[in-house]
Amino acid sequence: MRLLHLAVSNFRNIGSLRMEPGERFNLFYGLNGQGKTNLLEAIYLLGSPRSFRTSRLPELIKHGERMSQVQGAVESAGIRNKINIMLETTGRRVDIDGKGVKRASDLHGRLNAVVFSPDDTSMVKMGPEARRRYLDRAVYTGDIGYLYCWHDYHRILKQRNHLLKCSDKTGLDIWTEKLAEAGGEVVERRLSFVAELDNKLRRHYATIADDNETSRISYQPEGVQSTKREPIREELLELFKRHESSDERYGTTTAGPHRDDLTLLLDDRHLKAFGSQGQQKSFVLALKMAEMDNLQEIFGEPPLLLLDDMSSELDVRRNHNLMEFLAARDIQVFVTTTQRSPALLDNDSHRAVFRMEGGNLTFEGK
Ligand code: ATP
Ligand code: MG
User: β-strand 113-116 against 215-219: which pairing, if any?
Assistant: First the structure.
């Protein structure tokens, strides 16, 4: 997949910007607060229904403006498309080759991107919500059907929680059953994704960290032992029934897939409690590499890699190991740093360098 051309207007601090990225490595350097991450966010938005930084799209519109636009010429599976994203305070519109599209699935797979940023590393230390958010995003990037069943699940959850707060709880059983049904699909898809990722993770961790420790990621949904949708549905129904009285007491659904967590292990010990900072970074980077390979298997070509704030994320050794990974794959990479010449990309002739200053981008050469 390739981004061939990009035009951005009124997006965060970027007033107006046009660029032609290089085919392989693109470096955006600039001081703090100049708009480097904003640019990655704009690129990401061309292929994804959500930003990787916020769930509130209006935040993306430049202060004082009414709308924002991101346009990209992209290539996937040998086909070129023009994607046009228009953001207004009321929502977003997407055109592909001049035709409006309604469903997220129409955009899906035209420009896949994996982001690695400082925020990702902190998911190891943070609570379950951060890891769930990571998991949900990673699953729907490869499997858009997941996004729909995830939305269904949360819509039903909202209804059930609303009813739990009412004095008249007529119909609770029906909502509980619907929730178990939608939950069965959510959990089944998460389980199969995590199993795939876990297979790939070990090799990448060993590569990136030069480390013999065994890395593992696992997902053990509460109250669920099965891996197939129907038995999962039954187990979830059981779980919801078991918690019904506490749900009524608290006025909310206290257990279920919306509360689940991911377990990250290094040599069978919890990464969160026992991993060093370097090990945690390597682990998350290895997860991203596994995700990239997974997407390559699904779509037949690798996604873009958006590597944010590389200077703070990667030391010399990890840079080197990541470069070897990238060199072996035909990946278009967008890197941001605060310095013009990080060790990464130094010897690579296929790179384009851009300077970002106050939302303005200047091409500085190859
Ligand atoms: P760092 O190196 O610190 O990560 P950066 O170059 O990645 O910096 P960005 O996060 O891309 O910086 O941009 C931050 C700037 O964008 C801030 O000055 C912020 O005030 C500005 N900004 C964010 N949202 C908007 C918006 N909606 N309208 C205008 N400016 C915005
Ligand atoms: Mg930044």
Answer: unpaired
